[in-house]
Amino acid sequence: xxxxxxxxxxxxxxCPLKYKFQYLDRVKVDVGPSVEAFLGSRVHDALxxxxxxxxxxxxxxxxxxxARYKEAWDAEWADNVRIVRRxxxxxxxxxxxxxxxxxxxxxxxxxxxxxxxxxxxxxxxxLDEGTELHGFIDRLTKRDGDIYEVHDYKTSGTLPEPEEAAxxxxxxxxxxxxxxxxxxxxxxxxxxxxxxxxxRLVTTRSPEELDALRADTLRRIREIEWxxxxxxxxxxxxxxxxxxxxxxxxxxRRMLATHPENRHLGEPGVVLVDRLAxxxxxLKETTARLETEITQVEAALVAxxxxxxxxxxxxxxxxxxxxxxxxxxxxxxxxxxxxxLEGRLRRLGxxxxxxxxxxxxxxxxxxxxxxxxxxxxxxxxxxxxxxxVTVRLRRRTEE
Length: 399
Ligand code: SF4
Fold this sequence. Notes:
By secondary structure, this protein is an alpha+beta fold. Helix content is 48%, strand content 20%.
């Protein structure tokens, strides 16, 4: 039985190589958690402890929650916890956790009005015969008899838009798990607590949305199982990746970091990349310059041909055919006049033959179609006439 979790799927989506390191090769790296992950775990621990007291019939004070949090922070802190953001110290993160708990307690004390069914509650759902999805729900509660609420605590520094929350895959999977277990539930609410902002985003999922999510999750799992390549996908998240020390996308930069800066210039990789960048820049500049010159020469050629009444101007090996014609410009999609044109074509019984107003077909119809002068005039009334000059270069033909 293949077992997947939301974080496993999310890891593959963010970087297939990281997925391979973590879940396929199970590479062990000697780095600690990021401070953000450490903070999240300590806040989750404190809230789990709080609700365990509530389950036992006690209501801890805010000071007791803080004390529990600080004690765990100090006991668990290790020198290998990684602080990625420059200028941030561990105390700042420790204080952030206190603030999250302070805001949460101020809003939810005395933590009553719900029945706590589970804390850090494991779940497992069968997606098909050979695939299982598992995870942990931070807190599952019941209220008003048969309304179930899945609570998840977030200590991240970004607050999603309501539309993003309504599409959140993790929340959807937790709804699927809750619906599978509590089939009689009248409603399953997904309550995502963004602790830093003192915001709760509450969403639900319809049975159709859950069916679609189940199918999409299976599709994503099949994609992972069939993957033959696991390329690195660099993003801002690399700064927090525990595998950056062995990642080939970072290997050269890692090597350069061990060199004094003045030795970079001669390093073969640096030399090749610098040369390639220079050539690409030159190509771009040359292309732009040539395009400008071509436009100027074409304009001069048109003036020369017009002055002397030539339609073709001969060079040594090539010749340029200069044509000047009037072209019809019909209103583009989104232009208010376009709707008028469409209405007029329908009224004249020409809509079908224009295949839903393909503008080239309308032009052909006006030019060659079997139209009354009145109909032609009506359509032309909605078009602009613009001169169109074309210069076509071809091999010189001998007389
Ligand atoms: S450092 Fe970036 S690219 Fe490399 S494995 Fe980690 S997330 Fe992927």
